[in-house]
Amino acid sequence: MEIVIKSSPKELGIAAGKSGATLIRQAIEQNGFANIILATGTSQFETLNQLLAETGIDWSQVTMFHLDEYIGLPITHPASFRKYLKERFIAKVPPLKEVNLIDGEVDEKSECVRLSNNILNHPIDVAFVGIGENGHLAFNDPPADFEIETPYIVVELDEACRNQQLGEGWFKTMGDVPKKAISMSIQQILKSKHIICSVPDQRKAVAVKNTIEQPVSHLFPATAMQMHNYCTCFLDDASASLLLKSR
Questions:
Q1: Whole-structure pTM over 0.85, yes or no?
Q2: For residue 44, what is the domain's CATH number?
Q3: Res. 37: pLDDT tops 50
Q4: How many domains does the chain fold into?
Q5: What is the secondary structure of the chain as a DSSP string?
């Protein structure tokens, strides 16, 4: 795992977006197409902004998947990740080759099968991800399942995860935060050729420290990225503030 520390969330996002854009261009040049995963949430704002600002990407050759979505949440809800991606990314780029959004309003088991079958035919070139305050990767809360090979799974959201969503302002009350979601599995994320992990803000400092300095453990789900050969973690001074000084 490579660690890149920038001074602010904006500088972090610029660096992460530029790095991801380079990888997308390389995949298109080598293969004629690129398959990517996009994350959502406040941690991805600046990274997505930079990705949108990049030139020389033939978006018509890019297939997009996304990481997770709440079960039972309407697409019109402010916290819907489908809404987030439609408004913050899909509407701002030329038409993509293919868009694969998770529909949390249909039967979740059937939706997992549909998405899993599709992503198995689209090896991922670049996965853009973040880390939760509880150390989750996608919605794989601790203790996460590191063994399951199924690409998309139904998960229960723990209290710390739901508190984060409330604290970020996506919901008005804790009772409004869904308790279940469809999430990409840890093993599927690790199958990506490259991982770009963007993690700004002081509130993520403990999770960042655990992710980088703890041994790989299902109790710290994001430590799974230590096993990936081409993962770069983009941090800012605040999120990196608890790391050992030797870094």
A1: yes
A2: 3.40.50.1360
A3: yes
A4: 1
A5: -EEEEESSHHHHHHHHHHHHHHHHHHHHHHHS-EEEEE--SGGGHHHHHHHHH--S--GGGEEEEESEEETT--TTSTT-HHHHHHHHTGGGSSPPSEEE---TTS-HHHHHHHHHHHHTTS--SEEEE---TT--BTTBPSSP-SS---SEEEEEPPHHHHHHHHHTTS-SSGGGS-SEEEEE-HHHHHTSSEEEEEE-SGGGHHHHHHHHHSPSBTTBGGGGGGG-TTEEEEEETTTTTTS-TT-
